[in-house]
């Protein structure tokens, strides 16, 4: 007999004869002549209620079943008399696939996020993390759908690379040299690639080459930063979505970023409704109204100077002072989005000295065509720019940033041959998930988080 997922059974329109369901026992309630088994198979938040009668040959064993035990249930799907569910299964057989001893850590009581992080290998079995990882999977799929519908092609950038796109020096080195072997005068001559290699911090440089051939492309994959900051919104390994568009200026880039965030908000509200309900009930009571606001309100767009002026005039005491030429901190981003505008804000035209070499220099010679999308609570969710397409200006910027152009000849070729304006951005996928679920810590939106000092699992 073919196995059915609980999500399909519970969405059924009619009763069904002889269904087979596999799953794990969440709870058991016994009465005199039968037991209710609440079974979950991970396909959805809801459990399937199974009625096991004392006529079943192994009923005595079923009455001892513990939480976490694995079962195969055969029976009929019938209308349920109980509250809160439409269907239940009257079991004709319940096979015990394996029994979980009482030491199973996920007994019925609610556990703290901190504790669940210490058992990250088991937490997907809880309601909250099951819902979270279903939303993660579905949102990734919706991102592909979003781009596909707009004619973007998904291409892959290398994970091991010799370049440092952001120039922030937060690189994890990749080497096959044994510890202690410094390779002599040329430290990389004996190394695997014969050059310094590291894990990518961004797929952008590769995405630009592909956009300048195929038009509209995006990358979506893991990126790595050895940022030694233990914050709620930084991970050492995170996923980034990076669209890149040929023939597109900064304002078209902002339009795409805004459309993407709006569409993802609509997607979870409408297409992940059952799982999202858990987060609005137990994690962030304001979640749905925040998401509705994100969908409805146009994002505010202001140049960096204006953001600085607003912050300086706010009368707020910030731990980091605000002055022209310094980067916005999370507290500043939150003030703009939560207090001042009460909406997502796109800040653009940043001073060039706080941004990477590849951003297009504006006519003022001082700012670059950068844009960051800021949202309440999280702050920066997207960072992007129009790219410098003029060879001479780009070379001058590389010099200012102390970047050796000889390592980037291949990149400069794109400005030598048929150079055109182009733009793109990177959206942190975990930050998006934090926004969509109201979960406050990045460690809780990725199955196995990597942060400083933490590589368990
Ligand atoms: O602003 P960033 O550094 O931009 C870039 O890397 C560009 N090369 C992207 C591009 O234009 N193609 O990073 C982009 C986004 C940030 O806005 C943030 O959402 C996320 O990546 N991000 C992180 N997410 C989690 N943990 C970290 N340590 C992150 N660093 C950046
Ligand atoms: Mg950034």
Give the key terms.
single chain; alpha+beta; OB fold (Dihydrolipoamide Acetyltransferase, E2P); BirA Bifunctional Protein, domain 2; 13 helices; 30% helix; 25% strand; elongated; binds 4-amino-1,4-dioxobutan-2-aminium adenosine-5'-monophosphate
Structural features, described:
With 457 residues, this protein is α+β, with helices and mostly antiparallel strands. It has 13 helices and 16 strands. An eight-stranded mixed β-sheet has the order 6-10-11-16-15-14-13-12, with helices on both faces. Helix 6 crosses helix 8. The two termini are 36 Å apart. The model has no long low-confidence stretch (mean pLDDT 96). Bound molecules: 4-amino-1,4-dioxobutan-2-aminium adenosine-5'-monophosphate and magnesium ion. 4-amino-1,4-dioxobutan-2-aminium adenosine-5'-monophosphate binds next to strand 11, strand 15, strand 16 and helix 13. The site of magnesium ion (MG) has 3 residues, from strand 15.
């Amino acid at each position: 007999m073919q196995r059915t997922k609980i999500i399909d059974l519970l969405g059924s329109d009619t009763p069904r004869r002889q269904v087979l369901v596999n799953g794990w026992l969440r709870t058991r309630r016994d009465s005199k002549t039968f037991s209710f088994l609440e079974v979950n198979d991970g396909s959805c938040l809801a459990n399937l209620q199974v009625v096991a009668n004392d006529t079943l040959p192994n009923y005595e064993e079923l009455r001892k079943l513990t939480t976490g035990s694995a079962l195969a249930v055969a029976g009929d799907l019938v209308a349920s008399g109980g509250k809160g569910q439409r269907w239940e299964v009257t079991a004709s057989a319940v096979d015990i696939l394996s029994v979980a001893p009482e030491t199973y850590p996920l007994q019925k009581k609610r556990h703290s996020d901190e504790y669940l992080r210490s058992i990250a290998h088991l937490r997907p079995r809880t309601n909250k993390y099951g819902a979270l990882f279903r939303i993660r999977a579905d949102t990734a799929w919706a991102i592909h759908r979003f781009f596909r519908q707009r004619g973007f092609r998904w291409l892959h950038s290398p994970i091991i690379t010799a370049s440092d796109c952001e120039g922030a020096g937060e690189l994890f080195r990749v080497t096959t040299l044994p510890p202690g072997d410094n390779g002599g005068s040329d430290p990389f001559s004996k190394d695997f690639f014969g050059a310094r290699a590291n894990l990518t911090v961004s797929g952008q440089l590769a995405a630009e080459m592909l956009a300048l051939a195929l038009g509209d492309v995006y990358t979506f994959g893991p990126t790595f930063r050895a940022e030694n900051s233990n914050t709620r919104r930084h991970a050492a390994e995170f996923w980034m979505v990076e669209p890149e568009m040929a023939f597109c200026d900064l304002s078209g880039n902002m339009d795409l970023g805004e459309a993407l965030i709006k569409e993802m908000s609509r997607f979870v509200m409408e297409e992940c409704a059952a799982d999202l309900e858990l987060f609005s009930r137990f994690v962030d009571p304001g979640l749905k109204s925040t998401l509705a606001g994100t969908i409805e309100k146009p994002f505010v767009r202001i140049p960096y100077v204006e953001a600085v002026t607003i912050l300086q005039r706010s009368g707020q005491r910030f731990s980091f002072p605000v002055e022209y030429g310094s980067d916005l901190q999370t507290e500043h981003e939150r003030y703009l989005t939560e207090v001042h505008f009460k909406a997502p804000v796109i800040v653009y035209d940043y001073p060039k000295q706080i941004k990477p070499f590849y951003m297009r220099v504006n006519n003022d010679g001082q700012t670059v065509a950068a844009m960051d999308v800021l949202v309440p609570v999280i702050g920066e969710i997207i960072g992007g720019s129009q790219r410098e397409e003029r060879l001479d200006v780009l070379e001058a910027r590389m010099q200012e940033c102390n970047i050796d152009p000889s390592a980037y000849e291949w990149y400069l070729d794109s400005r030598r041959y048929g150079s055109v304006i182009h733009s793109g951005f990177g959206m942190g996928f975990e930050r998006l998930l934090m926004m969509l679920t109201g979960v406050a810590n990045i460690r809780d939106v990725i199955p196995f988080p990597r942060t400083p000092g933490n590589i368990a699992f």
